[in-house]
Design a protein that fits this description.
globular, 12% helix
Length: 319
């Protein structure tokens, strides 16, 4: 993955500032670790997936690795860790490959009554041929989980370093995610977020929603839809509707682990560009985590990726 070619000094200063924010939150919660468990517990999901896209202009194949986890040190303190990698290979054309990497840290403090607060630091980088972009995002979040329903909001900033002469850009971000769980098997969720670019350069807006139902047989089904408005500066709007299902292999034989998934999606981009995408994935749960699709627009609908630009690019046919 190519590195961004922005100003190293200013970029390093910004990164240090964001890392200091996360580190300060960790240090502030260190007294809670005195009552932590003997060893931390990890709950998370590993995802491996392949997506074949057949579009109006070209075909492509995408491979992706996603890892989402919570490292639980005590009833009060946990650390979220996300790692994503995706590579898109166009077929039958001279178009270059594209890659996207992302890592996110989320120290979280829980209060025992369902409420929690935390901070996040995220770095994402993407490259197509000699062009690359790096996005640093940091901020705070707070939420409340009442079992049958949950809500969470976040606020932060994103800075972008462009390698192809576009200079630096920045944006303030705000987002809201909500869950409703009418039964133990059904979960309905939605996410809305907006990024306001510096100097009134425009806005990026995301709205997504979805639902997942888990059957006793080990089968689960889900549907999700998303609309992303990148504004004039990023080329208009895009939307996606996805349907998928998964099957827990352990229900077939105890020697198998994980859930296999199959998803069909339809993408539409402003200007009449459309494509269809088929994704086959393998989800491996860790600890007590629930298997949910990670290389899918359903992840965005769950509020799984902070910063609207990263979430939008990541779900609309890239990673």
């Amino acid at each position: 993955m190519a590195n961004c070619l922005g100003d190293a000094d200013s970029k390093g200063t910004r990164m240090s500032r964001k890392l200091f924010l996360v580190a300060s939150t960790v240090v502030a919660t260190m007294p809670l670790l005195a009552v932590a468990q003997t060893s931390p517990e990890m709950n998370g999901t590993l995802s491996f997936s392949t997506t074949v896209t057949n579009g109006d202009a070209q075909k492509s194949k995408q491979t992706a690795f996603n890892f989402v986890s919570d490292i639980v040190f005590s009833e009060r303190f946990s650390l979220g860790l996300d790692v994503d990698y995706g590579r898109v290979n166009p077929s039958g054309t001279d178009a270059p490959n594209a890659t996207l990497n992302r890592i996110q840290l989320e120290p979280t403090l829980s209060f025992g009554n369902g409420s929690y607060v935390g901070a996040y630091y995220q770095y994402a980088s993407g490259a197509i041929s000699i062009f690359s972009v790096g996005l640093e995002s940091a901020g705070v979040f707070a939420g409340y989980d009442a079992d049958k329903w949950a809500v969470e909001g976040y606020a932060g900033r994103t800075s972008m370093d462009l390698s192809f002469g576009g200079g630096d850009m920045s944006a303030s971000n705000i987002g809201l995610t909500a869950f409703v769980r009418p039964t133990d098997s059904l979960e309905i969720f939605g996410h809305a977020a907006q990024a306001n670019l510096r100097d009134d350069a425009g806005k990026i807006k995301i709205f997504a929603m979805g639902a997942q139902y888990d059957f006793d047989s080990g089968l689960m089904g889900y549907v999700a839809a998303e609309t992303v408005d990148f504004g004039d500066i990023f080329g208009g709007t895009g939307s996606q509707v996805a349907f998928g299902f998964g099957y827990d292999l352990a229900k077939w034989t105890p020697n198998m682990r994980g859930t296999v998934t199959f998803e069909v999606a339809r993408n539409h981009f402003e200007g009449g560009m459309n494509n269809n995408a088929v994704t086959i994935g393998w989800l491996i749960p860790i600890g007590g985590a629930k298997s949910t699709p990670l290389s899918s627009v359903a992840r965005t609908a769950r509020g799984g990726t902070r910063a609207p630009f990263v979430a939008g690019v990541g779900s609309l046919g890239c990673v």
